[in-house]
Amino acid sequence: MSRTEKRMKFQSTLLASAVVVFSVLSSTAAGAQSSSESAASTADALDELLGTDSAATATDPAPAPQVADEEPPAPTTSSSPESEPAVDNAAAPESIPVEPATAIAVAAAPESRGDRIEEIVVTANYRAQDIQDVVGSTQAFSGQSLDRSGAAGMQDYLLQVPSVSFQPSGNGTTKVSMRGISNINGNDFGYASGSPTVGVYLNDVAIQGSGVFPDLKIFDLDRIEVLKGPQGTLYGEGSMGGAIKMVTNAPNPNEWELRTDQAYSWTSHGDANHEARAAVNVPILQDMMAARIVGTTSYSGGFVDYTTRNEPRANSGTAQTLRSILSYKPLENLDLGYMFLYSNDKRSQFAVVDAGKEDELTNSGPEDQYAKTKFTIHSLTAKVELPFASLTSVSSLYNTLRDSQQRVQVLQNLVQTQFIGTGIDAPQIFANSPTHVKTKLKSFSQELRMVSNGGDSIDWIAGAFYRDRSQTFEQEKYENSIPAISTGLLDSALAAANINTTVLLDNLLTALNINSFNPLQGKQEAGDGIENFRQAAAYGEATWNIVPSVLELTGGLRVFSETVGFTIDTNFYGVEAFLIGTDPQNIDPSDGTVGVNFSQSVKTSGILPKLSLGWHITDQDMVYATISRGFRSGSANIYAALSAGPPVVKPDFVWNHEVGYKSTWLDGRLIANFSVYYINWNNIQGTVLGNAKLGIVPTQFAYLANAGDAVVKGAEASTTWLLYDGLMLNLSGGYNNGVLVKAAPNSGVSSGVDLPSTPKFTGSATLSYSTTLSNDWVGDISSTYSYTDTQLMIYPAGEVSDGMPIPAYSLLKAGIGLQRNKFRLQLFGDNIMDKRAVVAISSPSKQSTVITPRVVGVRMSYDF
Question: In 630-780, where does DSSP find H-type helix?
């Protein structure tokens, strides 16, 4: 039975029931016929009106009448996960069992076929669905369109997603905010940074969590999916703002394939860039085994001059990735898969400039800054098809090694706090402040899930998840502006009095019982520690097809228990030791060293419910409503070493209330979607201004804590319009109003302030056109404009009462290409208007992370 037939039956049944009930009530009131007789006569009247037989309709409804020129109903798509097609509906081999935890949405630039926008079939909740049938605000980008545009990182597609804020740090880390939910306290150390609020997945492997939030290089993907709103039921922790899923192309056991791609480009005010990418598909056993290997290498030229270091265009970087997927189908109902990923990213200096020097692109910092990150993934997947369901096991292990050094002005920040309320910037007493950090992260996860075959009145999913993650770190902080030996008037005065400076210091330190203390040295801190995380969860989701293909009700629940721990052992030297060592409890009486050692863990459990209702009013219109909860695990507070805040911060939670409307118009030429939402964010993990204890003297200091509660109100809209064959227009926009409604006590933050990383308006417009030229050549041209409104970097408090606002910015990119058979040539430009867009600001001496200036280049690809 087609959806139209089911809908007619549903509506007829509702109408008949209403008439019967009314008739029964009327007859009872009038004392006329019995209720059964009245109902029968009313049903006969209804049959006469509709031209149907009520008795027959109850068991064997008549087919829906055919309308002239109406297209036949779309063929029924198998609901089993293995039937997942590519987003572009291009020919693709059968997927290996590395399915997304939930798949989604509208392509950023859907392909057209004839005079209609081609339907996109996805695997929402592990089942094949048309994108317009998926409950929730979603968006997707096909791998074909990503490759065609030369996309290589998150910036290349996230700026086209409404209600998303993207903040790269310049050193390889990235902060993503969705619907105003962000990792406000995120830092670039690689430890004690808290979990991101947006989940990132490569196939079934969740790679978000403590540590560096990676911006993986992308090539030869099937699609990227962006799902907004908390995904607690199926995704679990770390996806309370939304999730990003990167789905790779699957190996094909029956055909060789080689894809190549290389690009050369030039950056305004900077150096040249180059990139080479390749993918090869290797059939091993006919119909049974194949491997797909993808490799990329790139060099990014610098464009920021580090003037003090006399290093022009110093912020260069290199990156290499290797990805291999092996699939094996030994039995008809058994699929096995192995995935390996290696990523090596190196950056010298960073795309950071002095505040006010965005146009000059200069940085006066003297520190030697760098970041070296190695990232590996091993994943094993097994999928068994049972008579009633599919059972999938996913085991994954990922590791991150990071060695970085960057500017962290701890002492200067302490000086700045003494000027709070004066409106005056403190003098740059401590101007050379490198911090060196090494981290090593290991994470193991195991998931088992069972998905019913579908097509029943109730479809279900059930699963269990376990993760064990640990990260060790070593860190050293220096203040190299402090001279190694005493100089100046003090030395002269002491010499005149025949007082030896070294002897004086030794006598003073002996009196204080601080034997290892030397204030005249650059080294300030040295320590190590470990972050531990362990979680177990069980989840389930069921969909009741009240009226199949017309009305569905979905309920889900995830139950979890986790333990988050943090241990640190830090010794202090120099000026920091002098400050902290004034408190006797921080001095080791055995050797006189100044240090802090503590360990703490927090255990948390909870439930994450979900309830949604979808009503397909017609084949072209659907309305939905959903309520869902998401959470983020607790995290470490490194400033607890200064008695500022607790060592471990508790988790935070969100409740999302959302309604939406999805529609198709003009006989498939126009797709328009709209949603509004209201989010409660409780126990926000954020940086607040409180009191730190430097020795026995308390002083104001920023640290990590649960900063209170917030509310986010917003709306999103997206439209895809095939103006005429070959000409496509994509429009999207989002509005977010995030406000802190209840500030934490003694935080220094006021209720009513805007949430950081929450631009009120975001939007993008893409216009693309393709046409067939002579001699089988196809030409195409596209242009994308994106806009991100003003947003705060941190909470307004203390000496940063303005919240360090990031100005609004807009970017324009374009490309023009020629393609014939398997060869493609493209000219492209990014940031064509050469905007000096600021995406992040650091303090206390303000510096700005900037978007790469104008880039123009040429890209060539050939598939063998």
Answer: none
Which stretch of 287-291, 644-648, 663-667, 718-722 has the lowest confidence by average pLDDT? 644-648
Contact call for residues 171 and 188 (beta carbons, < 8 A): yes
Contact criterion met (CB below 8 Å) for 573 and 518: yes
Residue type at position 292:
R
pLDDT digits (tens, 9 = 90+) for 532-559: 999 999 999 999 999 988 999 999 999 9
Largest CA distance in the chain: 124
- The pLDDT > 90 percentage for the chain reads 47
Structure tokens at 176: 């993503």
Does residue 242 contact residue 228 with C-beta atoms inside 8 Å?
yes
Q: What are phi and psi of 82, to 5 degrees?
A: -70, -10
What is the helix, strand, coil percentage profile of the chain, to 5? 15, 50, 35
Q: How far apart are CA 366 and CA 310, in angstroms?
A: 10
Identify residue 736 by its one-letter amino acid code.
Answer: N
Which residues touch 335 (CB under 8 Å, ≥6 apart)? 82, 96, 97, 327, 328, 329, 381, 382, 383
In order of 135, 218, 313, the CA distances from 211 in angstroms are: 32, 20, 28
Q: How far is CA 249 from CA 294, 297, 467, 594, in A?
A: 10, 19, 26, 55
Rounded Cα–Cα distance for residues 570 and 473 (Å): 11
Three-class secondary structure of residue 100 per DSSP: coil
Taking residue 435's Cβ as centre, other Cβ atoms within 10 Å add up to: 21
Distance CA 595, CA 141 (A): 51
Instruction: Give the 3-state secondary structure of 385-413.
Output: ECCCEEEEEEEEEEEEEEEEEEECCHHHH
**What pTM does this model have?**
0.81
* CB-CB contact of 663 with 130 (8 Å): no
DSSP state of 590: T
- The reported pLDDT for the residue numbered 498 is 56
Number of neighbouring beta carbons within 10 Å of residue 841: 21
